[in-house]
Write a structure and sequence with these properties.
mainly alpha
Length: 142
């Protein structure tokens, strides 16, 4: 595959997800949270994390991660518990309400656009196969 074809394919994927069917605003509006707070909530709903790990996962600094977690905690969506192996740390995890909110966000974000749903079964299977290769092993796709 030529470099130009790879760039074109990447730009088309990016456009499809981020320009034409970006559901981040829809999720933010549904939950009344900024998207970074939704990302944090979804992350701790999946895997409880320390503030440092959460900051790394969100690509933000630790003080900002603290602000995000404080807001989520005020809304009853997360809790901080003592770290079992390090008393200096707290582990952030989702409450039941947080798990429900994360599920709502995931449902919104995971809704395929009409064009994807309309693909013939064989094309959809091929697209799924290709994306599976890219997600699991980007080097194998070469």
């Amino acid at each position: 595959m030529s470099e130009a074809a790879a760039v074109r394919a990447w730009l088309r994927m990016r456009s499809l997800v981020l320009d034409r069917h970006d559901r981040r605003r829809e999720a933010a509006d549904a939950l009344g949270l900024s998207f970074v707070r939704i990302k944090a909530l979804r992350r701790v709903a999946e895997t409880p994390s320390t503030l440092s790990d959460l900051a790394d996962a969100l690509a933000v600094d630790r003080p900002y991660a603290t602000v995000v977690v404080d807001e989520l905690q005020k809304r009853g969506l997360v809790r901080r518990d003592p770290h079992p192996g390090d008393r200096r740390c707290k582990v952030v995890s989702a409450t039941e309400a947080g798990q429900e909110a994360a599920a709502v966000a995931s449902a919104i974000l995971g809704e395929p656009p009409p064009g994807v749903r309309a693909l013939p079964e064989a094309d959809l299977a091929e697209l799924d196969r290709i994306l599976g290769v890219l997600v699991q092993d980007p080097e194998r796709a070469r």
